[in-house]
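dude i think i finally got it to work??
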Amino acid sequence: MQFLLTAVNAKYIHSNPAIYSLRAYAGEELQPFVSLGEYTINQRMEEILADLYQRHPDVIGFSCYVWNISLIKELLGELPKVLPDTELWLGGPEVSYDAPRLLEEFPMLKGIMVGEGEETFKELLTYYVDRENGDQERGVDSPELEKIPGLVLGSGVTAPRELTDMDRLPFLYPSEKSLQEFANRIIYYETSRGCPFRCGYCLSSIDKKVRFRDLKTVKRELQFFLDQKVSQVKLIDRTFNCSHRRAIEIWSYLKEHDNGVTNFHFEIAADILNQEELTLLKGVRPGLMQFEIGVQTTNGAVLKEIGRDLNGAEEEQGSIARIERAVRALRSGRNIHIHLDLIAGLPLEDYHSFQRSFNRVYAMGPEQLQLGFLKVLKGTPVWEKAQNYGIVCQDKPPYEVLYTGWISYEEILKLKQVEEMVELYYNSGQFTHTLRALEGEFSSPFGLFEALAAFYEGKGYFIRTPARSRRYQVLLEFAMETAREREELWRELLTFDFYLREKAKSRPCFGKDLSPYREVIWEIYQKEEREPELLKAYSHYHARQTMNMTHMEVFFYPVWEEEKEACCRRMQKPAFVLFDYGKRDALTGNAAAWVVGG
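look at this
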């Protein structure tokens, strides 16, 4: 008997911790009857169907999410044709709500597992193993199935399943060998389930109980990742720091046992960070941690409407101010990568309100600024009130908002274009200094990206998206249309940004002619060879070799200055800037850069 747990992930680098947790929880005696199959939504349905057929499982269970349910539904239509004797089950957040309707839509299904599935799956697997051993034919309405809590069957819904005890969950990566299954993929790990927030758009708002894994167990399992020098561990706790004591203990442990390699990603609420936590975090290694912070909006009325009033309804604006202070404190250490999220299409928020939210969050200076769009998930409070809000969304997953009573479809489309510009030009980290100077040409940061989106639209670049290297030239075109009189500044800013990231073999077309400065550049490298100061790591190389491994550029503007006003003043004589690609910033990936003359 083979029960195939099947995941269809959004990308190859992702894994599905749910199916690994189900298999692990089944225990050693039952695990031989479980196999795993992982695919991606980028694969053709026919390709996945063929692989499932070749495995010839007795039972297939699909892990269903908003991003993969459409493809899984396609498979459900074809699987009975090629595997008529294979029984089909669904589970996961996308099918836990309104499961009876799904059974009517797909009568080939044996049933649906709802809620947390570890114990449910173990009992279901036991049922199938016992059935095979007893060689008995049983149907969908089998009394044994109806006794298993957490199932929706053709005959009805079984008893509800109690929430899982976190300390009974096995570690998903029990050995070094088990990690080989995750080569070149993200490692996921959870220390808690549930969320203290009651966000109206989130399925976590339905489960109101936060449960924690034993701290000693957590430390032991984190140490395993550290010992194996895993590159990144992404914790999937909904709000990792909802318990200050636990957050302090775990962050302190990671700081004290840092291996210099592993990065840990946390989803946190910045407004509840306290001074003890901020002081601790300021002392961790650059690159040890990265934080994802869901701001969503800075509009107090919207925060109240969607249930983000953790500290009381009168505190919404105060919570945004606390986020700003916390992010400012975190950024001052220059050691933690910060990712801030916004959601467009929330109740009560119009286009101008979203602009204000964008500008306020942008001013916090995160390494990543994610513009998301409201997903109207079934069963959430926002879904229940959608008609009252005038919310119209896509009928098919991901159920993304089309328009609301406050924002039009045309405005949503404009925000989609702004989102792409932010992704290409801000989140890429390739154009930091150029963008900082360009901001001064517009009334607000949002105005800059809105104008850049209009430029892309006019040039047809949304249809023919420029390649990564070509985007520098496109941004120059945009800057020239914005302020042609500053052409020399724009060229130097783009050159500086380019060489911070690229050890390029060919020179960009916007770079100045360096031939008049070749002798001076050569003399600087020879001096470094004789008396190394900045390039001590290259002391065993000749000047010519060092020159090939690094880069030196000439500037007439101090484009490396933090203040955008300062970088716009032209200098009387050139400055020589050395880029060292052997030393890169742990947060940005930028090369180290020093002024060595001028």
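The chain has 23 helices and 20 strands.
im so relieved honestly
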